[in-house]
Every structure is written in structure tokens, then in C-alpha cells.
Design a protein that fits this description.
35% of the residues lie in helices and 18% in strands. The chain is built from 16 helices and 20 strands. Helix 4 links the parallel strand 5 and strand 6. It binds ligand BES and zinc ion (ZN) (2 copies). One zinc ion binds next to strand 10. The site of one zinc ion (ZN) has 4 residues, from loops.
């Protein structure tokens, strides 16, 4: 979808559809929607006499969020169709609502077979939003709402696509801000859709090598520093936990390091870590057939941090950001890890593998220890880590947030508020330490079936704290996002498209772009 910005009147656009909006409680008195309404009037040029006024007067359209009405131009305007999309109550207007409304309208236009669409910048008019934020959200919504995954279809390109989206703004003073917002919206949406694509790809099409190669290719393309460690280097580093998870698979592990400013010498403000299990069978602690079905999405955390870092590099984020993504496949073979095995992590902490299905925390443990060499101010990890998080938060509703630092938590919750990706803070009580006590090793990797969320976070905390030994400014502020149950969307609604969600990408970008250093 090619996106351009013009300083013109929306009702004068000769396209397959023009998109305008209405709030639930704002009368159609002025602005672009009123201009279109007047142009669609039966009595020439009389305000309030047009087809949109008719819709609202009859109660056929109320302006509720994601409501869409289709009107035909009938030769009264150059456009074939008019789509009116609801923004909901004006006082509840937000970037998230703009993204959703934009997505809904664009998808409707796409399904009608429209190729060229012109849209107002939702929220920038009567909504009173900063035009740059409004444009960013309008474009983000359009591009993520129109996302389709066709790569595994034999007829990949038999689908409808919008070729061109023209954003129309009549106020010249807003044009520059809108153009900046469009660039940002494109970068953010591209990142969300990239993460979605990696999650959607079948696990035989996307193994650790493929995901690492994809990351390297895309990083190289935009001049972002990317290092991919192979099995030999991982072994040399002593990443015993990562290797223990990987050893049952025919596909070797990878460890990806992205860095937005490798040469400046200052510590990163933010270090991101994403769980990259390209398929989680559970290993010998095997999952049920049902439980395994969505486990190609067990690399959604890695996808989110890589895609977000690509976007942050493009957006020239003012901070140094490092992203780490340990990538493995958790499989079964004669060489696979057994329940009861004791392994030595990179940190030197020994771990009894009580359950081979609790593999995410193992690969994160080595990544957290590796992160130490960067001396980051803050570490945020994101992972599809525990089924109990999905159970507690509700599938597709929210991710859990667990942190040792209130300030970092507040920044993440605020980023989550702007991104529309829900996070909810859960505790890190000291009592969870008891759950991971082992009779044989320093710790074990599960805390039994009860207390699974706290125990998983406490396991990670051991490695965050271990990094503290002898280092100043340690332990770093650390936050853990458990996005189990959030990797896939079950419905197509607003910006969500059934399938991979791209969850986390917008929040991580928002976090890195906002807040104090
Ligand atoms: N990848 C799973 C967690 C998961 C479950 C993600 C459902 C998305 C949906 C993780 O590796 C896992 O299997 N965790 C175990 C931990 C347990 C053995 C302590 C779980 O949640 O059952
Ligand atoms: Zn598992
Ligand atoms: Zn897993």
C-alpha cells in the first residue's frame, strides 16, 4: 500500500472510496465529514441535507467505534463510494481508537475491491489530536488492519489489495506533522506485520536458522548492527541452558544480537530479550496434541523484540537499544534433555530440569546473563512463558508484567496504555524462591503446577541478580512480560487480524521512544 499526503479537500478526490469519520456524540456541523455530507446533499449545497445526515437522523449510524456505513457517490462527488467510520465517544478518543477505526475502514474498502482510497487523518480534525500522532495511528491502523498472511497458500496472490492510500488534509499548517506521522506509522506497522509473519510461518518453514537469517537480512538492509552466534560460539560462551533445550532438535540453535548504536561506547538505555522457541513440543515432558497446536508461536517474544528494534533503528530512536534473541527448537530425540538432568548455565548456576516443557526460562537465563556485558540501564524480556499467565489474564486479553523496579513498570504501563496492548502487573514475592529449590542442583526450572507465574519470574530474577556480582549500577531495572496467550488473535476486529497478533511490538517501540533516560 503506497501512502501519500495531499493538501486538498476530501470530497474532491477521484478514488474508489473516500473515508471520513463521525464521533458518537458530535453533531455533523463542520469538518471534512460535513463537507462530504453537503456535497452528497439532494438540495444543492445546503448544510445538513446530505446522505450522512440522513444516516444519523434515521439512527442507522451512531458513530460507535468500528461501525462503518457505505454510501455511494452517485455522481455527486468524483469518488465512487464514501465510507463513514465511527470513532466512538469524543472524550474517549485515543490513538488506539484511531488505529482501530482506520483499520476497520480500510478493511471494508479492501473487501469491496477498492484499489485507490483517500482518507482523512482520523482524530486530527474535530478530534483535536496532535496531527502527527493522529497520522501515525491512521497509517498504523490501515497497514496492520489490511494485513493478510498468504505465504503458505498455493495461490498466494489471488487476494484483493489496496494499492494506494491518499491522506487528505485541507489545513496546510498540519501537513508537515502529518508527513512525519505517516513515516512513523509505516515503520511501526511494518514491524507489527513482520512479527506477525514470523509467528504465522509454519514451524517447518521457520526454524532458528531461518529466523536468525531473516533478522540478519532485514537488519543489514537498513544498516542495523546484527550479530548471529552459531552453535559453536554458543558452546564456547558456555550457554549450557540454551544448549540443553536445543539438543533434542535436528535444527541448531542461534543467538541474535541487534544493536542500534554499537560504536558510541555508552551503555544501552534499554536491552530487550525475546524468547525464540520456534517450536515447543514440550520435550520429554511432552505437551498434549491440543497444547502443541499453537507452539509455532513460541518465538513471538523474539519476533517482537527483533521487529521493534528494526523499527526503532529506522525511527532513529534517540537511545542505544540492544536486542537479544535466543532461538531454539524444543524437540524429542535420543539426544534430548531428560527430566532430572542437571545442567550448568552460562552464569554458573546449576539447574535441575524438573520439566523439559519449562524451556523458555532456561534460554532466557543464558540471555539475561549474556546481557551483563552491555551493562544496560534496563532489561525488558518478553516471552510466551507460562500457560497460567494466559489462564489468569484471559487468552487474548492481557499479558502479565513482573518487575523489580517501579519506575520501569510505570513506563511500561504507560507505553501499554498508548499502544493498546494490555499489561497487568503481577507480584515478585520473595516466597517464590522456595518453589524453585532443588534437592540436587542450585535451583530447578519449575515450581510445580501452583505458583507457576511467580516461580517462572523468580527463576529469571536469580539470573538478573546474579549479574549484580561486583558490578556497579547492578542489578539493573528489569521487567518481564509473559505474553502467553497473546501471540495469536482469534478474531479479525479493529487492528487485529485472525492469526498472529504482533503483540508487544508497539509497546516496546513506545517504551523506547518515550520516557527519561
Ligand atoms: N510455551 C509454553 C507456554 C505457553 C502455554 C505459551 C500456552 C502459550 C500458550 C511454555 O514453554 C510452557 O510449556 N510452560 C509450562 C511451564 C510448566 C511446565 C511449569 C506451562 O505453562 O505449562
Ligand atoms: Zn514449554
Ligand atoms: Zn515454550
Amino acid at each position: 500500500m503506497n501512502i501519500t499526503v495531499v493538501c486538498k479537500q476530501i470530497q474532491a478526490q477521484a478514488v474508489d472510496a473516500i473515508v471520513v469519520n463521525l464521533c458518537e456524540d458530535v453533531a455533523l456541523a463542520n469538518g471534512a465529514s460535513a463537507a462530504v455530507d453537503t456535497a452528497l446533499g439532494s438540495t444543492d449545497g445546503v448544510p445538513g441535507s446530505g446522505a450522512i445526515s440522513r444516516l444519523t437522523a434515521l439512527g442507522d449510524f451512531r458513530g460507535r467505534l468500528n461501525e462503518v456505513a457505505l454510501i455511494y457517490g452517485n455522481g455527486l462527488i468524483p469518488a465512487t463510494r464514501v465510507l463513514v467510520v465511527g470513532l466512538g465517544k469524543s472524550e474517549a478518543l485515543s490513538a488506539e481508537r484511531v488505529r482501530q477505526a482506520s483499520a476497520t475502514a480500510i478493511r471494508k474498502a479492501r473487501d469491496l475491491g477498492c484499489k485507490r482510497v483517500a482518507s482523512v487523518v482520523h482524530g486530527a480534525g474535530i478530534g483535536g489530536m496532535d496531527p502527527r500522532i493522529a497520522a501515525r495511528a491512521t497509517v498504523d491502523g490501515a497497514l496492520t488492519g489490511a494485513y493478510q498472511f498468504r505465504e503458505h497458500r498455493s495461490k498466494g496472490d489471488d487476494t484483493q489489495r489496496i494499492a494506494e492510500l491518499v491522506l487528505v488534509e485541507h489545513d496546510r499548517a498540519k501537513i508537515d506533522a502529518i508527513k512525519s506521522g505517516v513515516r512513523e506509522g509505516e515503520a511501526i506497522a511494518t514491524a507489527v506485520n513482520t512479527a506477525r509473519r514470523w509467528v504465522n510461518l509454519a514451524p517447518n518453514a521457520l526454524n532458528p536458522q531461518v529466523l536468525a537469517d531473516e533478522a540478519r537480512k532485514q537488519a543489514q538492509h537498513i544498516g542495523l548492527s546484527c550479530e548471529v552466534l552459531g552453535e559453536a560460539e554458543i558452546r564456547q560462551l558456555g550457554m549450557g541452558a540454551l544448549l540443553a533445550v536445543s539438543q533434542g532438535s535436528a535444527n541448531p540453535p542461534r543467538f541474535v544480537v541487534l544493536d542500534t548504536a554499537p560504536d558510541i561506547g555508552t551503555e544501552p538505555d534499554l536491552l530487550l530479550i525475546g524468547k525464540g522457541v520456534t517450536f515447543d513440543s514440550g520435550g520429554y515432558s511432552i505437551k498434549t496434541a491440543e497444547g502443541m497446536l499453537t507452539m509455532k508461536g513460541d518465538m513471538a517474544g523474539a519476533a517482537a523484540v527483533i521487529a521493534a528494534t528494526l523499527a526503532l533503528h529506522e525511527l532513529k530512536a534517540p537511545r542505544r537499544i540492544v536486542a537479544l534473541a535466543p532461538m531454539v527448537e524444543n524437540m524429542i530425540s535420543g539426544g534430548a534433555t531428560r527430566p532430572g538432568d542437571v545442567i550448568t548455565t552460562m552464569a554458573g548456576i546449576t539447574v535441575e530440569i524438573a520439566n523439559t516443557d519449562a524451556e523458555g526460562r532456561l534460554i532466557l537465563a543464558d540471555a539475561i546473563h549474556y546481557a551483563k556485558r552491555f551493562r544496560p540501564r534496563a532489561i525488558v524480556d518478553i516471552a510466551t512463558l507460562t500457560g497460567v499467565s494466559a489462564m489468569a489474564m484471559g487468552e487474548g486479553v492481557a499479558a502479565s508484567l513482573i518487575s523489580n523496579n517501579d519506575g520501569l513498570c510505570a513506563r511500561l504501563l504507560s507505553a501499554s496504555e498508548s499502544s493498546g496492548e494490555r499489561l497487568w502487573r503481577m507480584p515478585l514475592f520473595a516466597e517464590y524462591a522456595d518453589k524453585i529449590k532443588s534437592d540436587y542442583a542450585d535451583i530447578k526450572n519449575t515450581g510445580g503446577s501452583k505458583g507457576g507465574l511467580g516461580a517462572s519470574a523468580y527463576f529469571l530474577k536469580r539470573f538478573v541478580d546474579h549479574s549484580a556480582a561486583g558490578e556497579q549500577s547492578f542489578p539493573p531495572a528489569w521487567a518481564h512480560i509473559d505474553m502467553a496467550g497473546m501471540a495469536f488473535a482469534s478474531d479479525t476486529r479493529g487492528t487485529s487480524v485472525r492469526g498472529a497478533s504482533g503483540f508487544g511490538v508497539r509497546t516496546l517501540i513506545e517504551l523506547a521512544l518515550s520516557g527519561e533516560r
